[in-house]
Amino acid sequence: MIKFSQVNKRYPGGYEALKHLSFEIAEGEQVFLTGHSGAGKSTLLKLIAAIERPNGGSVVVKGQNVGSLKGGALPYLRRHLGLVFQDHKLLFDRSAFDNVMLPLQICGFDHRESAKRVRAALDKVGLLHREKANPIALSGGEQQRLCIARAIVNRPAILLADEPTGNLDSEYAHDIMSIFKSFHQVGVTLLIATHDEKILDRHSGRILSLKHGELLTTLPFATSGSSGQA
Amino acid sequence: MMQHLRTLLFTLHRLLASPVSSALNILIMGIAISLPVGMYVLLQNVQDLSASVSSTPQVSVFLALNADKDEVAQIGKRLEQHQAIARAEFVPRAQALEQLKRNSGLADVIDGLNQNPLPDAYIVYPKTSEPKALEALRDELQKWPKVEHAQLDTAWARKLDALLGFVRLGVLILAGLLSIALVAITFNTIRLQILTQREEIEISKLIGATDGFIRRPFLYFGFVQGLAAGAAAWLIIAASLALLNAKLVGLAQLYGSSFTLHYLTAGDSLSLLLFAAYLGWLGAWLSVSQHLWQIEPE
Question: Which tens digits make up the pLDDT trace of B201-231?
Fold first, then answer.
């Protein structure tokens, strides 16, 4: 599903964020990406979504070499991805409902069909009763869940999450993780970047550990409910 | 199709969301358009007027003072038989003097003259109104014996035509400049919109929006705003013409004429609206092309 081969990423100014990175994530896997801040977790996720381009090596997502993708093909790659951001990136000029609606509008879905899907997604993250609320009126945990609803409304094959529990207390964090778990159970490929040790202790899945842009270890976690072997 | 319709509704919603600034923008653009178009309409009116006058060109043929009755009659006959001439009207010198007395208000002066200084004359109505042919006819008549002078009475109309051509060029230059201004106004409006919607654009790109999708509402906005400005210009021109016509009725009566200014024709009105909409679209397109690529998600 996702394959990195000898990937290098150097930012302007010479800072090397990723060095000779190679790994593979199979379809339906749940993988945690860990490391100290600045280890290159966010950069790695950005390479998959083609927000950044690699300086060397290849990043292949769903059989497409992302690094050499033309600008016009980019949107169609991103439609296969659900992105969950630490800072949520919600729009405060519209309701929770309309925020989740945006990806479907972009894909040109029929309005009535979209409304059904939006409600289903909001229901899944437990926010159906807040659909008319402005995101600014939601708590941090609720905003994160809204962000997840927006990421999954399009039924993406791959879900990428960058520190999804970063600013949340442990109870909210647990909520979020169990939502992710339910996606994993229906076959979505999950890649979650986190530095939260507690999450890693409590949830199953393979762990990719980054240090200064290099891959340290690949620890297989084979607990129940996980298909997580590469 | 549905998506375009939704974008259009969304655009109208956005226009109405800030009614004062939208109205001001549309008004400024409307005034800018109405200036050259209004001048064009006036020009068109003057041109119609001059065409209606000069469409019956005449050649005045003044005979020599020493021409006798037979010679005068013979010239009359030759004129009647001439192929290029529809008819000729004889104006005896006595009648010409009478007319001059009546019309010029110089009766006292003329009474003081010892003898009639005016010659016999023919007013010739040619079949053609084509300038070259008219000049040729005048030159021919000029050479006839006992013809002192032949004068083409369309000369002033041609001078007016030349003048109108000059004014028309001026209107065109003005129209060109104001078109650029219109594009610039839209460019700037859209630039501000893009800046305020930076976040939305960024997020939309992140979740798979094509450039076309992001561009569309801005292009629609430019188009609709241009169209509204065109409509505003049309109203400004129609109202101004109505005002001018109300004044003109009295003025025209003094000249014994029923002249009124024509309004824009249906075709011209349509062109005006479409052109204004096109300029709005163009400004938006330039602006979007210039600014959208600068917004990339990080």
Answer: 999 999 999 999 999 999 999 999 999 999 9
Residue written as tokens 């729009």? Answer: A91
Please judge whether B203 and A102 are an interchain contact, meaning their C-beta atoms are less than 8 angstroms apart.
yes
- The distance of A97 to chain B (nearest Cα, Å) reads 15
- Cβ–Cβ of A103/B208 closer than 8 Å? yes
| Torsion over CA: B129, B132, B135, B141 (sign) | negative
CATH number of A1-80+156-230: 3.40.50.300
Question: What is the reported pTM?
Answer: 0.75
Sheet holding A189-193, edge to edge: A81-84, A158-162, A189-193, A30-34, A206-211, A214-219
Check pLDDT > 70 for residue A12.
yes
Q: Is the pLDDT of residue A230 over 50?
A: no
Would the CB atoms of A106 and B211 count as touching at under 8 Å?
no
Averaged pLDDT, A162-166: 87
**Contacts with A107 from chain B: Cβ below 8 Å:** 208
Q: Structural domains in chain B?
A: 2-53+158-294 (no CATH), 58-153 (3.30.70.3040)
The alpha carbon of residue B286 is apart from the nearest alpha carbon of chain A, in Å, by 19
Nearest to A151 by CA among B206, B197, B200: B206
Give residue-wise pLDDT tens across range A205-229: 888 999 888 888 665 654 444 443 4
A-to-B residue pairs, Cβ atoms closer than 8 angstroms:
50
- What ranges do the domains of chain A cover? 1-80+156-230, 87-155
Residues of B in contact with A49 (CB under 8 A): 206
